[in-house]
Amino acid sequence: MTRVLVVDDEPQIVRALVINLRARTYEVDAAPDGATALRLAAAHHPDVVVLDLGLPDMDGVDVIRGLRDRTRVPILVLSARHTSDEKVEALDAGADDYVTKPFGMDELLARLRAAVRRAEPAAGGGNEVVTVGTRGFTVDLAAKKVNRDGRDVRLTPTEWHLLEVLVRNTGRLVSQKQLLQEVWGPSYGTESNYLRVYMAQLRRKLEADPSHPRHFVTEPGMGYRFER
C-alpha cells in the first residue's frame, strides 16, 4: 500500500486530501508544519509527499531540501504561489511536480499517481548498463542507478526518468513536448521551464563541465539530445 505524507497547515485541505486518498486505499500521514513533516518522513518513510510551500514554521522549499538530504521520495508541491520563479525554485530544490491552488482533486490525484510511477523500479529490463565517455559515468537502466568516479550519484525520481528517456534515445533528438509528456504526463507540453531546471541539475551532477555540456545537448527551440 502506498503511503502519502500530506504537509499543509490548512485543516480543510488536509481533511479533503486524507478522505480522498484513504478512499483510494492510500495510507496517509499529515503534518501541519515543516518540522513535523521532516520527523514523520524520517519515521514512516512515505512513498510520496504532498507539500504546501506556505508553512507556519519554515518555507516549504527548505522542507524540500531537508527531504532531499535523506531521500529520493517523490515530492508534489501544492501551493498558492503562482509565479514562474517560485515554481522553478521549488523544482530546483528537488520537487518533482507543482500544483497551484485552488486545484482539482482529480488532477492532483493523477499527478500523484504519475509521481509514484516514476519512482517505481522498471519491470524486467535485463542488466542494461550504458557507459558514457571514457572517463564519464555509467547508467544502469535496470537498477535505476548512476555511477560516476566509483560513486553512486543521487538522482530524484524525476531526474532519473528524464535521464532514462534521453539515454534510451541516445543520439536522437527528443522534442520538448515528448520529454514533458513522457516524464510528467500527457497533460504537459509547454512547461519548458521544467526541462531547463532538470537539465541543469543533470548537467551539474553528471557533466565534467556543466557550462559546456558534452552529453546533455540542447537543440534550441526543439528539444534535447543525449550523446555518449
From TrEMBL:
Transmembrane portions of the chain: none
Source species: Streptomyces pacificus
Highest taxon, organism lineage: Bacteria
Gene3D superfamilies: 3.40.50.2300, 6.10.250.690, Winged helix-like DNA-binding domain superfamily/Winged helix DNA-binding domain (1.10.10.10)
Protein name: Transcriptional regulatory protein KdpE
Domain OmpR/PhoB-type: 127-228
SMART domains reported for this sequence: REC, Trans_reg_C
Keyword Lyase: no
InterPro entries: CheY-like_superfamily (IPR011006), OmpR/PhoB-type_DNA-bd (IPR001867), Sig_transdc_resp-reg_receiver (IPR001789), WalR-like (IPR039420), WH-like_DNA-bd_sf (IPR036388)
Major localisation: cytoplasm
DNA-binding region (UniProt annotation): 127-228
